[in-house]
Amino acid sequence: MAATDLNSDPGIQRPAPEPPKPEAKITVRNVAKVFASGNRLTSALTETNLTVRDGEFVVIVGPSGCGKTTLLRILAGLESPSSGEVKIAASDQNRPLHSMVFQERSIFPWMSVIDNVAYGLKIRGVDRRTALAKAEEFIGKVGLAKFARAYPHELSGGMKQRVSIARAFANDPEVLLMDEPFAALDEQTKLLMQEELLRIWDENKKTVVYVTHSLQEAVLLGDRIIVFSAHPGRIKAEVTVDFPRPRSHKLATTPEFSKLTSDLWELLKDEVIKASRIES
Ligand SMILES: Nc1ncnc2c1ncn2[C@@H]1O[C@H](COP(=O)(O)OP(=O)(O)OP(=O)(O)O)[C@@H](O)[C@H]1O
């Protein structure tokens, strides 16, 4: 049979082109981590395999001590894996591979807000004017424009955490690593910050790996949720979150949201029980 040239016959319907597959931004292959302290060995992670697509918001949940922070620290290059490998695909040599936002405030108390936010850019050799302009842009996005020249001691806890987030986004890293960034905030501030993060993320579509204990937060923020087993951690399940974006807290009032949160809890419950036995 002769091959048909689809381009030459206007009567023939061409199959819809496949959407391009987003490339893998983060690849975690067979990663294990054992900590040695004195003559005691602690296995924190076993056989961890994970691929995060470019622009994907991945949330990790799991019981206390299952290795979530360890995985994030390995991704940030702060720990090395005992075995296996981690790769972050760089799109631009001038961009940092990652920025990390921690639970505890990690801004410099002796620097003004704007200098804190511009810090990473200046370290990378971005000229002062460009760095300050970029910093101002993100300070505005997190609602701190009036406080750009203030010092951390003049800010509330939530405002300091906004500075950390502005700094992380202003750095324009290949991936953003967030370790329970809102855990220390009061409930109302946390709700505000979650919506701000959603809004900034919608504008930037950064690749994010986000650790949380809150299942509601995981469902609200994530494209995909990775459920870890109890210590030593390994991936037990993955849940895709299909809710359309932009999202807000209104989503949390829907039955679909409640159902997904409760399904997630069913997946996690046994692991939390196992972890509580390990700890006691
Ligand atoms: N530097 C270290 N030295 C020795 N053991 C460590 C070290 N860091 C972590 N661990 C151990 O590795 C395991 C995983 O710790 P990790 O902090 O990654 O867990 P986690 O899931 O983030 O916990 P949580 O949810 O409570 O923050 C724990 O048993 C912990 O005690």
Automatic annotation (TrEMBL):
Pfam families, sorted: ABC_tran
An example molecular function term from Gene Ontology annotations: ATP binding
Residues passing through the membrane, by range: none
SMART domains tied to this protein: AAA (SM00382)
UniProt keyword terms in alphabetical order: ATP-binding, Nucleotide-binding, Transport
Name of the protein in question: ABC transporter ATP-binding protein
